[in-house]
Every structure is written in C-alpha cells, then in structure tokens.
From TrEMBL:
GO terms for molecular function: metallopeptidase activity. Transmembrane segments: none annotated. Belongs to the peptidase U62 family. InterPro entries: Metalloprtase-TldD/E_C (IPR045569), Metalloprtase-TldD/E_cen_dom (IPR045570), Metalloprtase-TldD/E_N (IPR002510), PmbA (IPR047657), TldD/PmbA_N (IPR035068), TldD/PmbA_sf (IPR036059). This is Modulator protein.
Length: 448
C-alpha cells in the first residue's frame, strides 16, 4: 500500500503525463483497500483471510470526447500504456456535450477537513479470532439456538487520492472494524435464521462482541414458529435496521443522472412536500468518524452537510458535474467515483431525524398491522415508485407486538408511503444510513 503522499503523487504524475501525451484534460483516482478477516464456526477457526488491492483509474478528454481506463499494476510501463490506450479510446469516442471536469472555480481550495477517520490501532489476527469466538459463543448460548452459520471479525484500511489537470489534488485514509454473528434456531423445516453486526471507524467505538452475538441469537429465536397473515390494508412498521431502505429509494430518485435521463419517480417533485412537515432527512459527509464521511467528492469539490428533505420538502437533486450541466444546474458535491468510468452521484452519511413518539406510542392505535424486520427481493420500480417486496416480522394486534409472521408481501407506492410515514423517537447512529422506527399506513399486505 502506498502512503497517502505517494498515492497523491502517483495520481498527479499520471495526470501530468496524460496532458503531455495529448489529452486536453484529465483526472486520476487511486484507491487501495487492505483488510484482515477471521471467521469461526461452532467454536472452531474456519478462515483467516488477508486481502490487499490497489487500483488507479485515468479519465482523459479530447475536446468533448472522453474515455476512462483503470489498472491494478502500478508499474511505470503499465501506466504509460494506460495513458496511450485511454487517449486512443477518447479519440474514437462519441462527443458528449456534458462531459468534462468539475468547474474549476468550484474546486476545494482550502485544506481538507480532518474527520478522524483513521484509527492507529490495528488488531492482530489473534485478537480478531477472539472477538469472533466471543460473538458466536454468545449467540449460541441463547436458548433455542441449534446451529451456527458462524461469527467473524475484521479490520481494514482504505486510501483514496484524486488529482485533476485543472488544479485539484487531495488524499485521505479511513479505517474500519467490524464484528458479526449469524445463527439458526429450531430444526428441520421450522428452522429460522437471523444475524447481527456492527461496524465502526475506531475500535473503541465498536459494540462489545458479546452484545453483538446476543442480539443475533435473540433475533433468531424470536422468529420461531411464524404464522400466516390474512391479506388486507393495514399499517406497517419498519424496524430501524431495514427502514433505511425507504430512504435509499428516496435517494435513488434524487440522483442527477436519473433525473437527467427522466427515469425517476421524483422527476416533477422538486420543491414539493413529499413527507409530513416534521420530517427532515440529512446528508452529512463531514460527520466525525462517519462510515461514509469524506473531505471532498469524487471530482474534487468541497462537501457539506445538507438537508435532502427539509420540513417534508424535497430540496434539490444530488448532482455530479455532467448531470448538472445536462440539467442546467450546479454540481452539489455528491459525485462518486470508482476506478473506471465517469463519476456518478451518491450520498454519504444519511439520517432521518427522530420524531416525537416512542415506539410504543407509534403503534398504540394499531389494531392489526405488521412489524417488519426483514425485506426480501428488489420489487421496487424506480420510474413509477411502485413498491412490492417480500417481508417477514411480527404481527401487531391491539398496539402490541405479537407472534412471528413470514411469507408475506407488502405493497404500495413510494410517494403514498412517504406521505403517511411517521418516525419514532428512537434514532441511533449505527450505520451509514440511519432511521428511527418508521410507521407507514395504508399498505397492502398479502399473506402467504
């Protein structure tokens, strides 16, 4: 793995060489990931894996033609070939009036903010093994657990460097630590599975391994002996660990490329009230120790905390430079970039602000509904907003969570769901996308 300084220098050198070779403009991105993972099953070591990979991507422009190419070999001869091929490809590419680097006057010129993303502590494989064993043992200790899919622990580091030919150069690193367990309860055809996990940038922020395992075991046991549900229209309450998928669908409809292609269910909704006026959704790339925090976006633009939904209103689109040009707008610092290909648009650390009701109050008036803890399949149409997914969870009767249910389908339309959505007050920051418990009224539930 290159140091941050070496990575940034390598990207800058590649851009400089591309310009000398005939490119009108260019940018280069270097990314490296290194991780150690230890997996155990039934109390025995199952796997120890160490992986490390690096990639550098080059994008060049010849007029309004562009091409991108990437390589995992940092050998100077390989990089020289990379430049020649990318320029040759660009000369043969179709013209794109919206292609180009980010606006020069919008580039991050100040010192990149420090987001405390790097933990200097790197656990040895023996410590990872111990953590994995503790998590799995705790899960298996829950009465009713009959088998295990395993437990695990991992530690890793990633580095990113970006350079452009019009004046941006920057790099940052981040570490990650994680623990997980997955177990089964019951036997035969009645067997049920569930899991738990946690990840953090710093080891001291990671959940205790025993607590992770206990959650996995308790979740699996709670799902035993699931019943069926009579079909009907009823409230559906989403557990926080899967409720974030609703915000994910919102984000998918807000990205600039989808708007530019006119392939979003939110196409004509800019400035409209989509949610109750008390609902706000925040994207915060500058969150200290955030799982998706970053000091600049994939094109070298500064990033900032922003309300995507403010008081229920859709505030704007999430745009990279190309989609912004196509829409006649300005980029918003949401460009995301891999090694190959042009930038797209995406979010960082997102959360929906908590509501005022407790979870108990949220479901107190529900005579019959579903508390969903698992979603299955991808039955969501991003163009129309039609929503239909398999689900499992628990029956709610007279305001209380009752027996487990499975093999059900929940359906609606995302815009209708957003209008009736009510958040509880139990927001916790545990993932890259966080929501409290969510209630959505008027969904169609079909029993198995």
């Amino acid at each position: 793995m290159l140091s941050l300084e070496e990575a940034q220098s390598r990207a800058q050198d590649l851009v400089t060489a591309a310009r000398k070779a005939g490119a009108d403009a260019a940018d280069a991105i270097y990314a490296c990931n290194a991780s150690t993972t230890v997996a155990v099953r039934l109390g025995a070591l199952e796997d120890v894996e160490r992986s490390e990979g690096e990639e550098i991507g080059l994008r060049v422009f010849i007029g309004q033609r562009s091409a991108s190419i990437s390589a995992s070999d940092m050998n100077p001869a390989t990089l020289a070939t990379l430049i020649d091929r990318s320029i040759a490809m660009a000369r043969e590419a179709p013209e794109d009036p919206y292609a180009g680097l980010a606006p020069e006057d919008r580039l991050l010129r100040k010192r990149a903010p420090s987001l405390d993303l790097v933990d200097e502590e790197e656990p040895e494989p023996a410590a990872l093994r111990e953590r994995a064993l503790i998590a799995e043992e705790a899960a298996r200790s829950i009465p009713g657990i009959t088998n295990s899919e395993g437990g695990g622990a991992a530690s890793g580091r990633s580095q990113v460097a970006l350079a452009t030919s019009h004046g941006f150069a920057g790099a940052y690193a981040a570490t990650n630590h994680s623990t997980w367990a997955s177990v089964l309860a019951g036997s035969g055809a009645d067997m049920q599975r569930d899991h738990a996990s946690h990840a953090s940038r710093h080891l001291k922020d990671l959940d205790d391994a025993e607590a992770v395992g206990i959650r996995a075991g308790q979740r699996a046991v709670a799902r035993l002996n699931p019943g069926k549900v009579e079909s009907g229209v009823m409230p559906v309450i989403f557990d926080p660990r899967i409720g974030s998928s609703l915000v994910g669908h919102l984000i998918g409809g807000m990205v600039g490329p989808a708007i530019a292609r006119r392939s979003s269910f939110l196409l004509d909704s800019l400035g409209e009230t989509l949610f109750d006026s008390k609902i706000t959704v925040i994207d915060d790339p500058l969150l200290l120790r955030g799982l998706r925090s970053r000091p600049f976006d994939g094109e070298g633009l500064p990033v900032e905390r922003r309300a995507l939904i403010e008081d229920g209103v859709l505030t704007g689109w999430l745009m990279d430079s190309a989609s912004a040009r196509q829409l006649g707008l300005e980029p918003t610092g949401h460009a995301s970039r891999g090694g190959a290909g042009a930038p797209g648009a995406g979010i960082t650390n997102v959360h929906m602000e908590a509501g005022s009701l407790s979870v108990g109050e949220l479901m107190a008036d529900v005579k019959r509904g579903i508390y969903v803890t698992e979603l299955i399949g991808m039955g969501v149409n991003g163009v129309t907003g039609d929503y239909s997914r398999g689900a499992a969870g628990f029956l709610i009767e007279n305001g209380a969570v009752g027996p487990a249910v499975s093999e059900i389908t929940i359906a609606g339309n995302l815009k209708d769901m957003f209008r009736t959505l009510v958040p509880a007050n139990d927001l916790m920051f545990r993932y890259a996308m966080n929501v409290p418990t969510l209630r959505v009224d008027g969904m169609t539930v079909a029993g198995g």
